[in-house]
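Researcher: Structure prediction, please.
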Amino acid sequence: MDCAGPAVPDRSAGEQINRLTQFGMNIPEDARENAALLLRHTGPIRLSEYWQPLATETDADGNGRFPVGTAFSDVVELYIFDHKLRLLVFDAIAHVEVSIRSHWASYLAQAAGGGAQAYMNPELFNDEYAGALTTTIEAYLRKFKKKAKGLDTLSIYELADSMSMGHISRWYANIKSPGIRQAVANHYGVDEKALTTLLHHLTYIRNICAHHGRLWNLNLTVHLELPRNKPQSLAPNFNRHNRHKIYNTLAMLAYMLDVMHPFLDWRGRLLALLDEYGSVPKGQMGFPGDWRSRPLWSAAPSFP
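Model: Predicted structure follows.
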């Protein structure tokens, strides 16, 4: 059965445009050249992810149709919004990644008594220690393009600086002592279990961003375990009825960036983006109806 949603990749851009207009999308003649250009350079399969949510009506045969007034410019707006959102989220995750690496290395070397080569101490880590060590050392060598004179000459600070988000997520989760994990988590005012799942979740989100995946209304498959009691001021901001969308991730990132780098005003930049693209359906992103009145978004946050 034909419908407005799925793209047909072997059709030309002109044929795709005709198909969209057949199912009710408004594409004026003077906009068709730009629409065809976007289709050719973006690809119909990728772009269809932004027009499918707009086909909310059905005809007598059950085919998806676009409501009256739906224009190709609405597709472009969603596409650009998602692009800007992805860049903003990627930027936030980069700051979290650098911060965690710094606290992880410093605490293991100093407070935990591991010294500059703390990463070599298997007593600090669980069974996955050997594999994590190998992959992280290899990443260091690739990054700095030099041979290690010996593992005992490589400091934990140098090693941490070469870590990816996936590396630091695994290393943090692999710390044997919950007390050490909590000491790192205290810098953010959260429980160590919540931070462990957050780092795993952000690794997944970062990969979506890095590979230019759709983010705004995606059904997330690696879920975020939401903090409940620590800090208490954060709990009311989450949407606990919809954990499969990006809203809770955005709330957690806004909190983390407010704690780490309030001068960057990442939260304000996110709010400005949401206001700029006010017609984007926030419900499809998991935003609760009263989200703007919740403490994280309506006032200056409380720091832990």
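Model: The mean pLDDT is 88.
Researcher: Thanks, that helps.
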